[in-house]
Design a protein that fits this description.
Elements lengths: L13 H11 L7 E5 L3 H7 L4 H22 L3 E8 L7 H24 L3 E5 L7 H14 L6 E8 L1 H17 L10 H5 L12 E4 L18 E4 L9 H13 L8
Parallel strand pairs: 1-2, 1-5, 2-4, 3-4, 5-6
The chain binds 3-methylbut-3-enyl trihydrogen diphosphate (2 copies) and magnesium ion.
The site of one 3-methylbut-3-enyl trihydrogen diphosphate has 10 residues, from helix 2.
Length: about 260
């Protein structure tokens, strides 16, 4: 497939960027990258814009990051878009964020399909506004047979609630005799989580300078490599993403061994 990346740096940089991409592809890339896309509000504030302008700008970065992940041959990209705690925000901000999937997929879905991307979602669907859910479900349905990059949105996702729900399902299956105590191991427990069809993230990226997980994938990140940057999400560009991948490629993962 032709390279579909539209570079968002000035074009003079494009050849060096292309070189960097090709160089990175010579070494193994992470199979699953998860990103806590943080700093939209501060990006807007710095420009004396309303917070929602930051969310809108951030949406453009989602597209470009997806395309680069695809080009790098990363198999799974999970993007933390809205946490179960984000409902605490002002109503107008929440309403705006809930419109973004429609806007994003409304313009970008054909491009995702063209690039063989499969859309998935983790998070609680029940509390989402119907229009948000419909947009996501349409994208999931229309991309379900694609076998390229998995673009997984964490929307209304919270890891503690996910773990508690998994425990409840385990108890239920135990009571019904579907699950025996001796069969419950880490792998089996993982199958009760929302991420059951995905491998654990190899690399976690968080933007905006916050050094915390904010209730994101507490189980799944047990042995992931972490990469933090002060860059605010709307300013996150190809160079930053490549830097994170390069850093990952230099890490030595031991998983407790030597
Ligand atoms: C991340 O940016 C997007 C969401 C949490 C929805 P923020 O909105 O948290 O931006 P800051 O952290 O306030 O700058
Ligand atoms: C985490 O960011 C959630 C998302 C990026 C969707 P927050 O901005 O909500 O996290 P805190 O409140 O700073 O921990
Ligand atoms: Mg934030």
């Amino acid at each position: 497939m032709l390279n579909k990346i539209r570079l968002w740096k000035n074009q003079n940089n494009s050849s060096t960027l292309r070189d960097k991409i090709e160089k990175i592809k010579e070494l193994p890339v992470p199979d699953h990258v998860a990103i806590i896309m943080d700093g939209n509000g501060r990006w807007a504030k710095k420009r004396a814009l309303p917070r929602i302008a930051g969310h809108h700008e951030g949406m453009k970065v989602v597209r470009k990051t997806t395309m680069l992940a695809n080009d790098l041959g990363i198999k799974n990209l999970t993007l933390y878009a809205f946490s179960t705690e984000n409902w605490k925000r002002p109503k107008n901000e929440v309403e705006y964020i809930m419109k973004l999937p429609e806007e994003f997929l409304g313009t970008f879905l054909p491009e995702l399909i063209e690039n063989n991307v499969q859309v998935k979602m983790i998070g609680y669907k029940d509390q989402l506004p119907l229009h948000t859910l419909k947009a996501i479900e349409k994208a999931i349905e229309q991309t379900k047979n694609n076998n390229g990059l998995i673009l997984n949105f964490a929307l209304n996702y919270g890891s503690r609630a996910e773990i508690i729900d998994a425990v409840k399902k385990v108890l239920n299956d135990y009571q019904r005799g579907i699950l025996k105590e001796e069969d419950l191991d880490e792998e089996r427990f993982s199958s009760y989580l929302m991420t059951s069809s995905l491998p654990d993230p190899d690399l976690l990226i968080r933007t905006s300078g916050e050094i915390r997980l904010s209730n994101f994938m507490l189980w799944q990140l047990a042995y992931s490599e972490f990469w933090f940057t002060d860059v605010l999400w709307p300013d996150f560009d190809e160079e930053h993403f490549l830097k994170a991948i390069e850093a990952f490629q230099k890490r030595q993962r031991r998983f407790g061994g030597l």
